[in-house]
Amino acid sequence: IEPKTNVPRLFHLDPSGTYSRCDAKAIGGAAEGAQGALYDTFHKSMSLTEALRTALLILKQVMEEKLTEENIEICTISTEDKRFKIFDNAEVGEAIRNLEGRSLIETDDL
User: Fold this and answer.
1) For the chain, where are the E strands, in sequence order?
2) Up-side HSE of residue 37: CA atoms within 13 Å toward CB?
3) Smallest Cα–Cα separation from 58: which of 103, 14, 24?
4) 76 has pLDDT over 80
5) End-to-end Cα distance, the chain
6) How many CB atoms neighbour CB 23 within 10 A?
7) CA nearest neighbour of 8 among 79, 70, 92, 109
8) Contact, 103 vs 49, CB < 8 A?
9) What does the alpha-carbon distance between residue 3 and residue 95 come to, in Å, rounded to a whole number?
10) Which of 13, 26, 80, 98 is close enough to 19 for a disulfide, judged by CB 3.0 to 4.6 Å?
11) pLDDT at 100 (0 to 100)
12) Whole-Å CA distances, 35 to 62, 89, 105
């Protein structure tokens, strides 16, 4: 939570210690392709559910392996209640299974 605005913010810290504020960030082996897709699809007015669905679809496109509860992690920060939530394996599995559906884990806990 950024102290001046009291709004959740995302920062990326590189190995040299340089940090930068981001709206969306991809890291890891396929980060370049994923970052490009994020740049093309992400917008600040997205709902948390839309952002989660977009992130999972991008991961599905760039990962060589199939998405599973064991090879991805999901966490969210709600702008309404400013809660940081780490999904457990069951929630990650549900998100993956519902990826092809119309909605994605539409609960108040997101």
Assistant:
1) 10-13, 19-22, 75-77, 84-86
2) 19
3) 24
4) yes
5) 17
6) 13
7) 79
8) yes
9) 31
10) 13
11) 67
12) 10, 25, 24
| Chain CA centroid to CA 63, Å | 15
Which residue matches tokens 């991805």?
A: 72
pLDDT digits 0-9 by tens, 85-110:
999 999 999 999 988 664 444 444 44
Residue linked to tokens 């392996």: 65
- Residue 51 CA neighbour count, 13 Å, CB half: 18
Look up residue 88 and give its two tokens. Answer: 């457990």
Q: pLDDT band at residue 5, thresholds of 50, 70 and 90?
A: confident
The whole-angstrom separation of Cα 85 and Cα 75 is 5
For residue 69 the two structure tokens come to 């509860």
Amino acid at 45: S
In this prediction the pTM is 0.78
